[in-house]
Specification:
flat; mainly alpha; single chain
């Protein structure tokens, strides 16, 4: 669905709601989650017993997939791309 009343990033149109991002591999998201947990601890939010096993599971999964091509942060329509830094 397109929402024509929103200008979009740097006036890019159309703005769409309900994109296919949930089907995409975006490896950068793992770093965002890890950083959010780190910043929460630095900010005084106490960790609980589930946090460390969760982080270890994320890292284990990332160790398996980090070399796979992904769609990146921009959700480019089309196939997955391979970053030169991952070759």
């Amino acid at each position: 669905m397109e929402v024509d009343w929103l200008p979009g990033y740097e006036a890019s149109r159309p703005v769409r709601v309900g994109n296919a991002a949930h089907e995409q591999l975006q490896i950068d998201v793992f770093g965002e989650v890890m950083d959010a947990l780190h910043q929460a601890r630095r900010g005084g939010i106490e960790a609980d017993d589930s946090e460390w096993p969760f982080q270890k599971a994320l890292l284990a999964h990332l160790a398996e997939i980090w070399t796979q091509p992904d769609e990146g942060i921009w959700e480019v329509r089309g196939g997955r791309s391979t970053s030169p830094s991952r070759r």
